[in-house]
Design brief:
- The chain is an alpha+beta fold.
- The chain is built from four helices and six strands.
- It has helices spanning 17-26, 30-44, 52-58, 78-84; strands at residues 2-4, 64-66, 89-94, 97-102, 105-108, 117-122.
Length: 125
């Protein structure tokens, strides 16, 4: 299931999916979250907080679900994830995108439920 939601304080639709997802999942102010991500990426030696390796390092404290490819079978999609996880808050690393799923609903500026999910972090508060 999908619901349109934009965590950007000015409602802009920009390439800020990592900030939107993390700030929404952790209930953190968007600008504060962006500052923290920039600080942490410099501290860890990354050029971008969109780097997959950075995300794995930054979110390492949270339980991680891995969805491996199975030969001959399609990968799990965002819509499948929402049905399998109707409760809880998750950050989803998808094909070329990062989003948030809260209680079985993907909150994003566009419907990304058709994208494959590679990894999910369960955000425990």
């Amino acid at each position: 299931m999908y619901k349109e939601y934009n965590a950007h304080p000015k409602g802009l639709k920009t390439g800020d999916c990592v900030v939107r997802a993390i700030s929404t999942a952790t209930n953190t102010d968007y600008l504060e979250c962006r500052r923290e991500l920039n600080r942490k990426k410099r501290e860890l030696g990354y050029t971008s907080y969109k780097d997959t390796k950075f995300l794995y390092e930054y979110l390492k404290e949270y339980p991680r679900l891995i969805f491996k490819a199975v030969k001959g079978e399609p990968r799990i999609k965002g819509r499948d994830f929402t049905r399998l996880h109707p409760k809880g808050t998750y950050i989803l690393k998808m094909a070329g995108h990062v989003t948030v799923c809260v209680d079985g609903v993907i909150l994003d500026t566009w419907d990304s439920t058709y994208r494959s999910v590679y990894t999910a972090w369960e955000i425990t508060k």
